[in-house]
Amino acid sequence: MREEEHLKELASFFKRTSAKIKLIKLISKAKQEYDNYNYSESEASLKEAYKIDSENPAILRGLGCINLFRKDFDKAFEFFNSALQKSGSKEIEYTLLGMACYLNNQLDEAVKYFNLAIDENDDYTPAYEGRNQTMLENHLKIADFQELLKKYF
Fold it and tell me: What mean pLDDT do residues 22-26 have?
């Protein structure tokens, strides 16, 4: 009986290892497809990976990015927030949430998320870049608005 239990444990170990290898291959494939602008194939790989591990932040981030590209901001937010709950690198998710807000023209919200990313990791350059771009965009909008007001008053 002891040998049978050992064999079951060994089989279970190999099954888990096989699933992890498949997951890594799918995530890598999805990233490569995304980088090559093949978003539908990337999404298909991510959805297959999601069936294996729906808690994986990298998969959730990827699905969020696909939806962000499609300008489905609500779905992107949903995936990024799910990733945020499961991630050990929250600065990535906060930065992605900031980018989603920026692209959806919610500049004040974007700055808030970029600041949260910086609070998590003050060495995370993409958060600074996103915040600076958002603040510049906001400043330009204010300057344009002021010029418009000058014309009418």
Answer: 89
